[in-house]
Here is the input.
Amino acid sequence: MFDVALGGVLVTMLLVLVRGVLGPTAYDRLLAANAFGTVTILLIPVAGFWTGPPEWLDLAIVYALVNFVGTVAVAKYARFGGLADDERVKEQP
Here is the structure.
């Protein structure tokens, strides 16, 4: 059963990777990178269950947090051209 799940996750990762390479806009590539990270989060526990006791679940949770924060940071950078809040910087003497 885990063989089929692992194969399905790997095929999904391949399709998302193709979409990221062929994406016509930066937002398509950003969405593909986020989806690749999400599928990687699915891959970690499935691989953990496939090899034995699922000791990698903590790693999957940490990777999920890093994936979320990284996606938000890249989206803000792509939208505004920087990560700093410009209004607060202007108010300081």
